[in-house]
Amino acid sequence: MLLNCIALPDGRPIFGGTYFTKEQWSKVLINISKLYKEEPQKAIQFAENLTKGIQESQLITLNKELPNFAEKEVNASIYLWKSKMDTIFGGITTGWNNFFDGQPTTGAFRILNPDYPGASDTSSFLGGINIESSDKTQTLSIMTTSGNEISTINRNPANGSLVGNRTLVSTVYTNRLTDRLIYVFQNDNAWQFHANVSPGNVGQQTGTAQWYSFANYLFWEFSPQWQGGVRLEYFRDNNGYIISAPLRNESQLNNQGYWADGFAGTFWELTFGLNWYPNNNWVIRPEIRYDWFSPNASTTPRPYGKPLSQGIGTGGNQLAQFYAGIDVIWQF
């Protein structure tokens, strides 16, 4: 950048600027010359003010006071630059679950349909859009991820896998109803081709798995350190594909229940919890939760019940469960 500057005979600047056309610069020179000839004191005053301003702008002092940022002040600052952020974005990830460097062609989980387009590729697209209301109280985010994933035959990796496209579309709507009350709605829709499953509803394509959910959250901010919340979620696994035997059964050695059919049906979940922020690093989250399951058929395995030492060859023996838990999170 080239700076054009006009100075008095003693060297003090009286005018400066950049990117002038020839005609503009000629007009500036004529006006400054006229000012200096007809009103020299006024020109000198301009130069003194400009010199003083330049000197003061170069003075940087160290602020030794500790900052005390209130949440509202931080949010106000964020909103100033948030509008400048990209609202549409996308990229490439290395798959739904990065268990493999590439899709397996031999051994356990080996692909039985290697001619499927991009069969050996684990890359997936991840992208979405964010929309915010003019008063900053409401946001809408729509995200999607899509790429090839494998499905085991009869849930046993030794029998090989089929590869097919898996796509998830997630929509999240947030509304700050008051200064302390926040509502969040989330909807997820997903499907997997070549999932090796039977249709779970009328008109569903054979071999395609589908699952979706609707979740509602309501948060109340008691103080900067305490937040309470309630969540009600509906989750539908049409084909018993995405939810399989309970983890406690999967962890048992030689447990054939690991390869049993999944839980085709509808899951409901109701949670009450608290978030406690004792400082900037720790979050402590106690909760109580109730889950219940509506199976597609009476022969569908039950997902809850049975202690760790039982349940060989099956899922659980209950359709509902109630429990309490606590999360301790350290942020750094």
Your description of this structure?
- With about 325 residues, the chain is an alpha+beta fold.
- It has a ten-stranded antiparallel sheet, with no helix packed on it. A two-stranded antiparallel sheet has the order 1-2.
- β6 and β7 form a beta hairpin.
- The longest helix is centred in the first third of the chain and has 18 residues.
- It is elongated.
- The two termini are about 40 Å apart.
Largest sheet data? 10 strands, antiparallel
Q: Within the largest sheet, what's the order of strands?
A: 3-4-5-6-7-8-9-10-11-12
Instruction: Supply the helix-strand structural class.
Output: alpha+beta
Percent of residues in beta strands: 35-45%
Radius of gyration: 32 Å
Spans of at least 5 consecutive residues whose pLDDT stays below 50 are none
Give the overall shape, derived from the CA principal axes: elongated
Number of strands: 12
> How far is the N terminus from the C terminus?
41 Å
Percent of residues in helices comes to 10-25%
Overall mean pLDDT stands at 81
Number of helices: 4
Q: What is the helix/strand order?
A: EEHHHEEEEEEEHEEE
